[in-house]
């Protein structure tokens, strides 16, 4: 099934899902590169994994619980230090609706 | 001033404790060295000269007062710029975090500070640790001290280059798919990726959390073991941290490999692996055999699928982890702020992230999207399970697994950067340790002309002691680690 699995439209769709703006030139470049990379990934199709459970994590982890004890919180000033726009002690975000 | 910057960490600690060496003078000598040499290689993004000298003076005072100043007393430590340092800019080599000042220290930073290490600066890397060449940094490429036209490896390229140039005595890196071992191999130093869960990831800026570990980098195996001893151990702030008793890894270092059974997977020597690199590796294995180790060739068939599986998992995790960069609470924010949230968010990410980061986020998004989730992501996780099973089988009859760290010697700057797939191929031999969570170290094992080659030694989970011991024995019986680049 080699060849064009990804079209420019697919790239635009993925960019929209990932919230990343792209230039026209980047769209063309990525269309070509994504096809090449996905062609290479295709080799995994030949592995029989019918009865293999997926490994999400290499350690046998169980949920870890702890008491919900408050610690010293970060000051408001510190929390806001890295924000490029703030107002009255809040983060300022673009309009949502 | 004498060449104090040449001391190993072990030497610094001994001399500071016996009051033969002033930490301030030694740190001054390192800072001088950075001023003198770093413009050639660009290993640092930030140098914290003032803070380092102040810390050095405080340590000297403690020593004068007869107080114990810790297991890394006075040692100049370079920190990869994706590890959070309170009040010191932590950029991930990205425009996105160009002005990010973490409000807290990563757990490993708390530990090294408690033990008296002196943070000398933050090192260059591939943007968000996504790369094997340190070429994608927003702050410019780092050059390989062995040949300035070549890459130092990546993504912890700055840490490795700083070490080989004596611009630091110890360094921290992070390894998601080889990012400690690759630059260790390309710069001829020692770098170790710990077993998943041994070292806390709290404060490591995430790229692919089920794969990555912070690890030690050094010029000698002893120094590497020492730094691992300090940074390893349970941390309640990292929910994937293993709750195991602490070990002193320096106690494992003895010049003896007589009982060691080595396995060499033939898949590590297949297509795409340079013949001269293979020769270096075989000579290393012959050396170990001479010293008493035994070896056998094995086959781990599913290794053939390790690289694509790794990239699918890493990109999928990256697409989720990097969704947090919206430019609102921290990070790059465009000045063209008209438009709704979605528009501004997308623009911040276009301008804040370099192309490779965007490429990986997007491919990860694709692999996780409806209709492709099972075909790519779940399939890759299943292959991961198969590789792990085969590793477990192989390790029933061997103590360590060996191969080259990198399939090819350091390549030229610009040679691969426009062909992402050819760069991904460089991670062929390093990703299996990340997929399985097994520990692995790279040690200098030869040169092709002036270009270094690294030997990779993979061990059983939480058996860092054995790979360090084998690496130590190899180092004691060879001279590769003593060679220095000619620009030195």
Your description of this structure?
- The complex is a heterodimer of chains A (97) and B (488).
- In chain A, strands 1-2 form a two-stranded antiparallel sheet.
- Chain A has helices at residues 8-18, 24-41, 76-80; strands at residues 86-87, 90-91.
- In chain A, β1 (86-87) and β2 (90-91) form a beta hairpin.
- In chain A, α1 packs across α2.
- With 97 residues, chain A is mainly alpha-helical.
- Chain A is 35% helix and 4% strand.
- Chain B is α/β, with parallel strands linked by helices.
- Chain B has a single domain (4-263, 399-482), classed as Amidase signature (AS) enzymes (Alpha-Beta Complex).
- An eleven-stranded mixed sheet of chain B has the order 1-3-2-4-6-5-10-11-9-7-8, with helices on both faces.
- The chains are: A mainly alpha (97), B alpha/beta (488).
- Chains A and B meet through α1 and α2 of A and α9, α10, α11, α12 and α13 of B.
**Largest sheet of chain A, if any?**
2 strands, antiparallel
Radius of gyration of chain B: 21 Å
CATH class of chain B: Alpha Beta
Major sheet of chain B = 11 strands, mixed
């Amino acid at each position: 099934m080699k060849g064009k699995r990804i079209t420019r439209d697919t790239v635009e769709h993925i960019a929209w899902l990932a919230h990343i703006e792209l230039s026209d030139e980047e769209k063309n470049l990525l269309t070509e590169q994504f096809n090449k990379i996905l062609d290479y990934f295709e080799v995994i199709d030949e592995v029989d994994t019918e009865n293999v459970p997926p490994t999400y994590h290499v350690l046998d982890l169980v949920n870890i619980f702890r008491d919900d004890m408050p610690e010293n919180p970060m000051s408001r000033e510190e929390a806001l230090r890295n924000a490029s726009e703030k107002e009255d002690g809040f983060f300022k975000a673009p309009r949502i609706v | 001033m004498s060449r104090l910057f040449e001391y190993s960490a072990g030497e610094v600690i001994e001399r500071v404790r016996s009051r033969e060496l002033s930490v301030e003078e030694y740190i001054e000598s390192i800072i001088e060295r950075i001023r003198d040499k770093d413009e050639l290689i660009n290993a640092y993004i930030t140098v914290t000269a003032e803070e380092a000298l102040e810390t050095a003076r405080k340590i000297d005072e403690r020593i004068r007062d007869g107080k114990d100043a810790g297991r890394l007393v006075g040692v100049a430590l370079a920190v990869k710029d994706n590890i959070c340092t309170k009040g010191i800019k932590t950029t991930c080599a990205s425009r996105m975090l160009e002005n990010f000042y973490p409000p807290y220290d990563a757990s490993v930073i708390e530990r090294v500070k408690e033990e008296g290490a002196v943070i000398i600066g933050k090192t260059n890397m591939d943007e968000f640790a996504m790369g094997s060449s340190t070429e994608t940094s927003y702050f410019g490429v780092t050059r390989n001290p062995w040949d300035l036209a070549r890459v130092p490896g990546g993504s912890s390229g700055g840490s490795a280059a700083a070490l080989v140039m004596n611009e630091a005595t110890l360094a921290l890196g992070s390894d998601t798919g080889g990012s400690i071992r690759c630059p260790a191999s390309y710069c001829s130093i020692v770098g170790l990726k710990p077993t998943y869960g041994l070292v806390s990831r709290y404060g490591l800026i995430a790229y692919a959390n089920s794969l990555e570990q912070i690890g030690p980098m050094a010029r000698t195996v002893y120094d590497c073991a020492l730094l691992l001893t300090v940074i390893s151990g349970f941390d309640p702030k990292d929910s994937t941290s293993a709750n195991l008793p602490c070990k002193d890894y320096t106690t494992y270092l003895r010049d003896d490999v007589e009982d060691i059974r080595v396995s060499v997977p033939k898949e590590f020597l297949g297509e795409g692996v340079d013949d001269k690199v293979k020769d270096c590796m075989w000579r290393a294995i012959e050396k170990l055999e001479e010293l008493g180790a035994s070896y056998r060739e094995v086959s781990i068939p599913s290794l053939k699928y390790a690289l694509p599986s790794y990239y699918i998992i890493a990109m999928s995790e990256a697409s989720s982890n990097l969704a947090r960069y919206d430019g609102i609470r921290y990070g790059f924010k465009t000045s063209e702020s008209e438009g709704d949230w979605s528009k501004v968010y997308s623009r911040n990410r276009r301008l804040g992230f370099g192309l490779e980061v965007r490429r990986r986020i997007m491919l990860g998004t694709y692999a996780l999207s409806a209709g492709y989730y099972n075909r790519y992501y779940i399939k890759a996780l299943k292959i991961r399970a198969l590789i792990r099973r085969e590793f477990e089988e192989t390790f029933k009859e061997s103590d360590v697994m060996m191969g080259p760290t990198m399939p090819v010697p350091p390549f030229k700057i610009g040679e691969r950067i426009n062909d992402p797939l050819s760069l991904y191929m460089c991670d062929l031999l390093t990703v299996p340790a990340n997929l399985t969570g097994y520990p692995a170290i790279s040690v200098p094992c030869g040169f092709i002309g002036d270009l270094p080659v690294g030997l990779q030694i993979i061990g059983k989970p939480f058996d860092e002691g054995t790979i360090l011991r084998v690496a130590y024995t190899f180092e004691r019986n060879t001279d590769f680690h003593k060679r220095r680049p000619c620009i030195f």
